[in-house]
Amino acid sequence: MDITRDPERPSVEGPEDYFTGDVRIDPLFEPDADARTAAANVTFEPGARTNWHTHPIGQQLIVTSGCGYVQREGGPVEEIRAGDVVWFPADEKHWHGAQPGKAMTHVAVQEEEDGDAVTWLEAVSDDQYPGGE
Q1: How far apart are CA 126 and CA 35, in angstroms?
Q2: Which 3 state secondary structure label does DSSP give 8?
Q3: How do strand 59-72 and strand 78-81 relate by DSSP bridges?
Q4: Where are the beta strands (DSSP E) in the chain?
Q5: pLDDT one-digit tens code per residue, 60-109
Q6: CA 129, 96, 7: angle at the middle one, nearest 5?
């Protein structure tokens, strides 16, 4: 058994290369020698969002507070709220983030394949984002 205490996992800002707006990432756990799953609490301030991206084995989102949006390439923008669970299959291009007037937090769970858990792509434009300018 291994217990990692919360203070051992400091919060980090979402890098501008991968996010628009203010995003805080609170790591929960990383893969180790016997597992390939990682998870983090991710908090998006109003209007903040990820870039388009994919995951080699897929990604599960568990919305824990607030209201947000998700979209897969070619699909409509979908509203998500606390209690919703979203699954993106392997290699499905997508983005997620908060609504313009409300912050949103979710737990993001994904697995690594050959040491990679995500491929970051282009930013979601203001025209693609509901309520954007």
Answers
A1: 38
A2: helix
A3: antiparallel
A4: 12-13, 19-20, 23-29, 37-44, 49-50, 53-54, 59-72, 78-81, 85-88, 94-98, 104-111, 119-120
A5: 999 999 999 999 999 999 999 999 999 999 999 999 999 999 999 999 99
A6: 135
Cβ(93)–Cβ(52) under 8 Å?
yes
- Percent of the chain topping pLDDT 70: 98
Count Cα neighbours of 97 within 13 Å in the Cβ-side half-sphere: 30
CB environment 56-70: b (16+ within 10 A), e (fewer): beebbbbbeebbbbb
Residue 100: alpha-carbon gap to chain centroid? 17
User: Which structure tokens are listed for 27?
Assistant: 């790591």
